[in-house]
Design brief:
mainly alpha, 8 helices
Length: 262
Amino acid sequence: MLSAKSLFEEILDNDESFRLFCSIAASGESQGGWENARIAALVPETERALAPKITRHGADEDKHGRIFNALLKKRHLEPVPVPPETDYTMLLEKHGIGLAHDKLKSDEPLTVQDIVTYLSHSRVTEQRAAEQMELLRKHFADHSDIGRAVKMISNDEDNHLAYCHEELLRLAAAGHGRAIQRTLRECALAEIRIYRDVSLAVMVHMGRVLGWPRTKSAVLAAGIHAVYAYERIAGWRRMVSLKMPERRDALGGPATSAPELA
């Protein structure tokens, strides 16, 4: 019987599929770390109080990248190049979601609208990340190899999501509510499409590595399309709602260090 747990166990048990999984994850996290670091450096003067939290966000993403690389090293594996069609972070940027890298590479200060765009993009993608890590935490929190890493990353993603809610509500109260809702909707509808495409691409690569029969690949592809259909009709709305989180000032302190995995 196909299930999220059985599929991940299959990926985890095979060195080549595990290597691809960790390489994709590490690349995306490292890219997020760079983006947040640049945003923190370019925050407009009126939002300078936000800079330490953005820096903390970026430090967490960098840490996650190191954790995935450490998981590879623990199994004496080297990272592999990330297939472009599986690069979630870069595909979002390519389709105009979030802040363009050309903007982040310049020294021009960002605007408050840029911060709205950044936080809206983060609110959507952190929803996805928090849900994915919660799924892994549910099934693998006690796993001898990845349990500690899964729990730490899951907790961080929950913090990131709480931070996005709180800061977007603050900006909405300051008069940016309509811009926030418009940007959230645009980001969510684009993200669910890109997530579908990336999921299909990852499935193809994993199927090739693990030798999945056509019937299994077809069933998985149908499931991915079904999730997209649901998200396109109604599921995207969970990515655009805002409520004050229980975790207040979730990124108000220093980043925590990565666990020792050796």
